[in-house]
Write a sequence for this structure.
């Protein structure tokens, strides 16, 4: 079924930069969100509201795509509603609130969060811009009374805009469902209430008909926050919240990966490693939530505790720098590089380097080969909404299967029970998990990996989208099921 749809996300599926003549050109963005949402917008002739980078100014036209291989190639410029932000506003809103306040707080790391009123005002102002632009997009729909009209808002950058948009739509008597998906964790009430603007965020989200999270834990944390902080009426069993005259349905809809794409490319991707040692592999955005420092130190402990394994393994870490405008992220890069240097210096021999480190992006196609040839996938976030890397690693284990080691503090860790689950905060536990994985015999590896693969193949990206739209279409039925107190 085709429906009138607006997707709203902080970033558009491309950034605009200028070529040597000063003309704007699209530079494609990759990543899970674009892979999932671009085909949806194309199929439905929908709109996409978002920011396209600092180079885009109001007097510029959005160019058409000139790259037929780009996932967002089929999105015409008339379907794009760009948000223009000054450098100063972007800094307060994005580097300030999104990355400096909300990111650490939502990942239950409140001591890293900075709370500043001027930054918060910018966050609210930017959310208002998004709300106004989305309202203009909705007004272009063919039928403003159609029940299937939908706005789908993405992630923590846009948590106060839903209620703003709801009010605009109600005043204009436009029928349109609002849905929200949070890609990162929603923390417990006791952490969330540290945010001086907790009420505003909850009230903002309650402008939506459907509010979805990766896991039941996050969904129930959100319900408890609405109950304790706002005093909202909640039905915990049916997962429904009522506040004032608004009713919202809450759901856990865990995201999946394009499984077949990874499996297929694992068959043809080039061989990345030309050494005989077993490879322990990690790939992440360079972010303190990903537990990369803890991982490296756990590996050091492994080499210390199990000297027989030295020269028989190599730890290969790929980390792409991100959010380099934020000090904590710059410090993390320095610290990681110091630690890698120190550990290499401590254990390396003339013939063997214990850690190889690439500080860059690698293509998803090449990545399929890295995953395939790694004996151990070592994924140790201290907190992560879901973690797609764990799922991608599993999809690429096509021949002699490797072993997945994963932190239980990730959404993925809540369901991937056949992996080795390890608390990354204790180095000995990481060291012992690596040893168990290193020693694991073929039949156990195969048994565990088969079970992991069956689940991820079934609950892939398409299943996620289907379950999201099923939930959207059932909203009115769900709302009738409430028995609130
Ligand atoms: P991220 O924090 O970005 O996503 P993750 O889920 O691991 O984390 O996804 C990262 C993606 O980027 C993966 O597809 C991975 O292959 C790719 N990637 C990472 N480092 C790379 C590198 N150096 N080179 C090439 N590719 C690299 C947020 C949340 C997650 C949630 C997702 C989706 O923080 O918890 O799983 O959204 O909802």
């Amino acid at each position: 079924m085709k429906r009138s749809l607006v997707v709203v996300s902080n970033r558009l599926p491309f950034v605009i930069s200028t070529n040597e003549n000063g003309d704007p050109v699209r530079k494609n963005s990759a990543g899970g969100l674009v892979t999932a949402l671009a085909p949806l917008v194309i199929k439905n002739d929908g709109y996409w509201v978002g920011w396209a980078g600092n180079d885009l100014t109001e007097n510029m036209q959005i160019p058409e795509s000139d790259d037929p291989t780009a996932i967002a190639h089929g999105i015409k410029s008339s379907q794009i509603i760009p948000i223009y932000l000054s450098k100063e506003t972007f800094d307060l809103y994005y580097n300030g609130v999104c990355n400096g306040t909300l990111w650490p707080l939502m990942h239950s790391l409140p001591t890293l969060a900075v709370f500043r009123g001027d930054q918060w005002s910018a966050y609210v102002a930017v959310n208002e811009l998004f709300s106004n632009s989305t309202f203009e997009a909705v007004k272009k729909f063919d039928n403003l009374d159609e029940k299937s009209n939908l706005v789908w808002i993405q992630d923590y950058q846009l948590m106060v805009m839903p209620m703003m948009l709801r009010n605009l739509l109600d005043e204009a008597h436009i029928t349109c469902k609002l849905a929200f998906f949070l890609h990162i964790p929603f923390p417990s009430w006791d952490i969330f209430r540290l945010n001086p603007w907790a009420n505003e965020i909850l009230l903002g989200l309650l402008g939506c008909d459907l509010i979805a999270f990766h896991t039941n834990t996050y969904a129930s944390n959100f319900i408890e926050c609405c109950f304790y902080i706002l005093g909202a009426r909640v039905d915990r069993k049916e997962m429904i919240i009522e506040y004032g005259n608004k009713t919202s349905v809450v759901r856990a809809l865990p995201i999946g990966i394009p499984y077949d794409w990874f499996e297929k490319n694992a068959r043809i991707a080039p061989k990345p490693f030309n050494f005989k040692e077993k490879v322990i592999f990690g790939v992440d955005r360079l972010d303190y939530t990903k537990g990369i420092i803890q991982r490296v130190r756990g590996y050091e402990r492994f080499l210390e505790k199990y000297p027989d394994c030295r020269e028989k393994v190599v730890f290969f870490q790929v980390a792409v720098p991100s959010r380099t405008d934020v000090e904590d992220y710059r410090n993390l890069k320095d610290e990681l590089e110091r630690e890698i240097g120190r550990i290499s210096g401590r254990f390396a021999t003339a013939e063997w380097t214990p850690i190889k480190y690439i500080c860059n992006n690698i293509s998803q196609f090449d990545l399929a080969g890295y995953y395939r040839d790694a004996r151990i996938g070592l994924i140790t976030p201290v907190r992560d909404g879901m973690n797609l890397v764990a799922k991608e690693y599993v999809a690429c284990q096509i021949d002699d299967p490797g072993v997945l080691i994963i932190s239980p503090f990730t959404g993925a860790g809540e369901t991937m029970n056949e992996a080795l689950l390890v608390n990354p905060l204790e180095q000995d536990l990481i060291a012992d998990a690596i040893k168990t994985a290193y020693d694991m015999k073929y039949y156990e590896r195969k048994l565990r990996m088969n079970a992991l693969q069956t689940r991820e193949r079934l609950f892939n990206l398409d299943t996620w989208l289907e379950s999201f739209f099923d939930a959207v279409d059932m909203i009115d039925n769900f709302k009738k099921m409430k028995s609130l107190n």
The pocket of adenosine-5'-diphosphate-glucose is lined by residues 31-32, 183-184, 255, 283-285, 318-320, 361-362, 367, 384-389, 392 (CB under 6 Å). DSSP finds 17 helices and 17 strands in the chain.
